[in-house]
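Now for a typical sample entry:
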Amino acid sequence: MSKIKELLVNRGLYSPIEIDLNDLKEMLLFSMGHDNSSTASIDCFCKQCEEKSVFRLKSSTFHRGLTLASDSFNKEVARQNTFERFLNKDHELKFQCARNHKHTTLIFYLLTTETTIEKIGQYPSLVALLLDNTQKYKSVLEKQYSEYKKAIGLNAHGIGIGTFVYMRRIIEKLILNEFDNSKTKLEISRPDFINLGFDKKIELLKDFLPDSLVNRKNIYGILSKGIHELDEDKCKELFPILKISIELILDDILARKERIAKEKNLNSDLSKIKLN
């Protein structure tokens, strides 16, 4: 995902991303308004559609329409001058749902410095957009869903380390839940299992856990290091990656639950069929 798209849809407020001349092409893309709305777009949850939708750029206060010098000798100078005109300014971007222009307009307020771009405001809030898109995980997380919401809320308000605490608890609970579901097939007591190191827990449960967790067991180590060693800025930078990693695990667990439910219903329906 490109830098500005990442900033708009995944980053909380006040989490700057470094920019340089290499980012000029993307910055120009988000400066064109209606002139280039067919390509300047983001994927985001639409509350009215009740699902993810494409939102196309409706308006932008990014610098518009500067034509770079065609003369090759001046091209780099023109690029540098264009890039500098984006810097040290506040910008507003508005996006419309491609399905229905009457749906809520997404508004983002950005601030550039000499070397960074950050989001300083948005409507609807990042929390509202992300939580609307996470309702499906309630059935998987159950009581842990409140901790998932807290992690998203903290990130949206520019907090890094605190989000790792809640996400690590979610991973720990998912592992413990799988142990409880499978303990009759394992030769270990619950207290002994709890006292195992994380890698040994994964090894013991690898036949019962989704591959998305078994193959990415380093998630837990990253979360632990974040809590004890990393600073706020690094945790904020890593949050979107870890959030997606956890959601992939939740998606796999949810798909498995849905398949089990479908098979149960199918078996019931098949048992009722009488051909004679």
Notes: Residues 232-271 form the longest helix (40 residues).
